[in-house]
C-alpha cells in the first residue's frame, strides 16, 4: 500500500472508531466529537480507560500495535463494567466491534477511577507476559536484534555458533514493512512451519510486479553513522526466493517482502560510488587492493596432495591444528582445504603432505552461476568484474551491453517497469539511455572467498535491505557441547585480538544482585 492508501485506511478506521464509541466517550464525561479526531481520540481514550498517554504511541508502532489494539478493546469494555471472560472474548473475536454493542444496545455506566490492577494471579501473569512481549518486540525491532552465525563465510572474524547482538540504530532502524506478522519471528513460525506474516506472494506477470497486503512503504529512522567499507553488515538477501526457510526450494516467481527475506551477514567490501574488481580472489577498489582490518583473515581453497592414503583421524585432526577452517577429501590421496595463506603454508609441514596448491577458477569457468548471469560476462568467483556500485542520485549511461548489471536494480529494487525492444531500453514506457538511482547500493562478500555465497552470486545489496551492524558476541559454541569461553562477551569490531568481557560482566551481575539484596534487607 502507498502512503496515500495508508492515510485513507487510517481515516476509515478513525470513522469506524468514532461511530462505535462516541456515546461511550459522552458517558465518560467527554465530548462526542472527541471520538472522531485521529490521534487525539486515542489520547482521550487512554484517559477514559485509565491508562498512560504513551500507550497512544504503541498503537501506531507496527507489529506492537497488533498486541496493543486488542488490549485497548478489552480495557474499553472493562471501563464500562464488562469484566467477565465472555466480554473479553467478544471484544477480541469481533475485532473491537463489541464496542458497537456497548455503544448502542447495552445499558452500561462508566467506572471512573477504575482499579487497573489484575484481580488474580493468572491475570497478573497474563499482564506481565503481554507487556514483556511488547517491550521485547520494541527492542528487537528498533534497537538490538539477536542473530546466530549459520555459515563459515566470515570465518576467523565470526565463527559458526557465534551468537550476536545486531544494532538496528547505527545505520537507522527500519520500520517493519510487514504490518501483520508474528512478533519476533522472521520468515516461518517454528513447529507450525507456516509463514509468520500476511502477504500475497503471487507474481503479477501482467504488471511485472508483486501485489501486497497491508504492506508499509520503506521507511527508516535516521541512524548516526553510514556503512563504511569493510564493515560487517547484517542484511536481507536481495535475491531470496525460498518458499520456506527450512526447505531450500527456490522459485524465481515467489516474492517475499523485504523485511522477511533471509538474513545474511557479510563484509561490505564496496560502498556506493566504488569501482570494484576481484583479481585472484583479492578485492580491488578503484584500482587499489582493498586493505582489510587486522581481525579479518582471508581464506582460500587449496588442493592438498598426500604422500599416502587419506586417513580421517590422522590427516583431518593433524591439518586442523594448523588453524585450517575445513578439510574435504576428494580422493584417496587428495584433499581440499579452506585456509588462510599462512595456515596453508604451515600445512606443508605435515609429515603426510606432499604439496599444497591454491585452487583458482579462471574467468569463464562458472559464470552461469554468477551475477549477472548473462552472455558477455565470463567471470568467476576468483576473477570478477570490474563493476560500478551505484550511488543514490548518480546517473549511469545505459546500453544493451551493461543493462544486465542494472536491470534488477531498476526493475525490482526501485519499482520501475523495464523492458527491451530490439536494441532499445524502455523504462516506464519511455525510451531510456540513462538512469538515476534512487538509493545506495553495496557489495557484500565473505572472507572465506571460495566458500561464500555472496554478491558474486546475486549482485548488489540495496540500502533498504540493510538490517543492522553486529556489535557484540554474547555467546559462542563450537558445536552443541563446547563453549568458546574466550569469545563470550567480545566486541565484533576493533583492532587487535578481541578481549572477553565475560568475567567483568559476571562481577557486575553479582554486585547488582548483592546490592538489591542489601537494599531489601535494609528496608525490612
Helix and strand layout, with pairings?
Blueprint: H1 3-27, H2 40-48, H3 55-58, H4 64-78, H5 85-93, H6 98-104, H7 121-142, E1 144-148, E2 162-167, E3 188-189, E4 194-195, E5 203-204, E6 209-210, E7 232-236, E8 242-244, E9 247-250, E10 263-270, E11 275-279, E12 282-285, E13 288-289, E14 300-306, H8 312-320, E15 326-329, E16 334-339, H9 341-347, E17 353-358, E18 384-388, E19 395-397, H10 403-413, E20 418-421, E21 424-427, E22 430-431, E23 434-436, E24 441-445, H11 455-458, E25 461-462, E26 466-478, E27 482-483, E28 490-491, H12 502-523
Antiparallel strand pairs: 1-2, 2-26, 3-4, 5-6, 7-10, 7-26, 8-9, 10-24, 11-12, 11-18, 12-13, 14-16, 14-17, 15-16, 19-23, 20-21, 21-22, 24-25, 26-27, 26-28
Explain what you see.
The chain is α+β, with helices and mostly antiparallel strands and about 525 residues long. Helix content is about 25%, strand content about 25%. The chain has twelve helices and 28 strands. It has helices at about 5-25, 40-50, 55-60, 65-80, 85-95, 100-105, 120-140, 310-320, 340-345, 405-415, 455-460, 500-524; strands spanning about 145-150, 160-165, 190, 195, 205, 210, 230-235, 240-245, 245-250, 265-270, 275-280, 280-285, 290, 300-305, 325-330, 335-340, 355-360, 385-390, 395, 420, 425, 430, 435, 440-445, 460, 465-480, 480-485, 490. The strands form eight sheets. Strands 1, 2, 7, 10, 24, 25, 26, 27 and 28 form a nine-stranded antiparallel β-sheet that branches. Helix 1 (about 5-25) packs parallel to helix 6 (about 100-105). The longest helix has 25 residues, at about 5-25. It is globular and about 90 Å long. The N and C termini lie far apart (about 60 Å). Mean pLDDT is about 85; it is low at about 205-210 and about 245-250.
Amino acid at each position: 500500500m502507498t502512503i496515500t492508501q495508508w492515510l485513507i485506511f487510517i481515516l476509515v478506521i478513525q470513522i469506524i472508531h468514532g461511530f462505535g464509541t462516541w456515546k461511550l466517550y459522552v458517558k465518560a464525561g467527554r465530548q462526542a466529537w472527541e471520538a472522531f479526531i485521529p490521534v487525539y481520540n486515542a489520547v482521550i481514550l487512554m484517559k477514559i480507560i485509565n491508562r498512560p498517554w504513551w500507550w497512544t504511541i504503541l498503537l501506531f508502532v507496527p507489529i506492537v500495535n497488533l498486541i496493543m489494539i486488542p488490549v485497548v478493546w478489552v480495557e474499553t469494555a472493562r471501563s464500562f463494567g464488562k469484566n467477565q471472560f465472555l466480554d473479553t472474548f467478544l471484544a477480541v473475536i469481533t475485532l473491537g466491534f463489541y464496542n458497537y454493542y456497548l455503544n448502542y444496545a447495552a445499558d452500561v455506566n462508566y467506572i471512573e477511577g477504575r482499579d487497573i490492577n489484575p484481580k488474580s494471579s493468572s491475570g497478573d501473569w497474563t499482564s506481565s507476559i503481554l507487556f514483556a512481549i511488547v517491550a521485547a518486540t520494541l527492542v528487537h525491532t528498533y534497537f538490538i536484534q539477536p542473530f546466530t552465525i549459520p555459515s563459515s563465510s566470515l570465518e576467523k572474524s565470526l565463527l559458526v555458533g557465534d551468537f550476536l547482538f545486531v544494532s538496528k540504530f547505527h545505520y537507522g532502524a527500519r520500520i517493519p514493512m510487514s504490518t501483520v506478522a508474528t512478533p519476533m519471528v522472521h520468515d516461518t513460525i517454528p513447529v507450525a512451519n507456516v509463514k509468520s506474516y500476511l502477504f500475497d506472494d503471487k507474481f503479477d506477470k501482467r504488471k511485472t510486479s508483486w501485489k501486497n497486503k497491508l504492506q508499509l512503504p520503506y521507511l527508516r529512522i535516521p541512524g548516526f553513522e553510514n556503512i563504511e567499507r569493510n564493515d560487517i553488515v547484517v542484511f536481507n538477501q536481495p535475491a531470496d526466493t525460498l518458499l520456506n526457510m527450512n526447505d531450500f526450494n527456490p522459485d524465481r516467481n515467489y516474492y517475499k517482502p523485504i523485511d522477511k527475506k533471509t538474513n545474511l551477514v557479510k563484509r561490505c567490501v564496496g560502498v556506493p560510488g566504488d569501482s570494484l574488481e576481484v583479481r585472484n580472489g583479492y578485492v580491488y577498489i578503484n584500482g587499489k587492493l582493498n586493505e582489510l582490518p587486522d581481525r579479518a583473515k582471508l581464506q582460500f581453497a587449496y588442493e592438498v596432495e598426500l604422500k599416502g592414503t587419506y586417513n580421517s583421524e590422522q590427516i583431518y585432526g593433524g591439518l586442523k591444528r594448523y588453524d585450517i577452517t575445513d578439510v574435504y577429501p576428494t580422493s584417496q590421496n587428495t584433499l581440499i582445504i579452506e585456509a588462510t595463506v599462512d595456515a596453508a603454508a604451515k600445512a606443508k609441514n605435515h609429515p603426510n603432505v606432499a604439496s599444497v596448491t591454491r585452487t583458482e577458477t579462471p574467468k569463464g569457468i562458472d559464470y552461469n552461476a554468477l551475477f549477472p548471469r548473462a552472455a558477455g560476462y565470463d567471470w568467476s568467483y576468483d576473477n570478477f568484474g570490474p563493476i560500478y556500485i551505484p550511488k543514490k542520485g548518480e546517473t549511469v549511461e545505459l546500453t544493451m551491453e551493461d543493462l544486465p548489471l542494472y536491470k534488477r536494480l531498476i526493475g525490482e529494487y526501485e519499482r520501475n517497469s523495464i523492458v527491451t525492444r530490439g536494441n532499445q531500453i524502455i523504462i516506464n514506457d519511455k525510451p531510456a539511455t540513462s538512469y538515476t538511482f534512487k538509493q545506495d547500493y553495496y557489495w557484500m562478500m565473505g572472507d572465506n572467498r571460495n566458500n561464500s555465497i555472496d554478491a558474486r552470486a546475486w549482485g548488489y545489496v540495496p540500502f533498504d535491505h540493510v538490517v543492522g551492524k553486529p556489535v557484540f558476541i554474547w555467546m559462542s559454541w563450537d558445536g552443541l557441547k563446547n563453549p568458546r569461553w574466550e569469545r563470550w562477551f567480545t566486541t565484533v569490531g576493533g583492532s587487535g585480538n578481541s578481549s572477553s568481557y565475560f568475567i567483568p560482566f559476571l562481577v557486575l551481575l553479582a554486585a547488582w544482585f548483592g546490592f538489591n539484596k542489601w537494599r531489601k534487607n535494609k528496608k525490612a
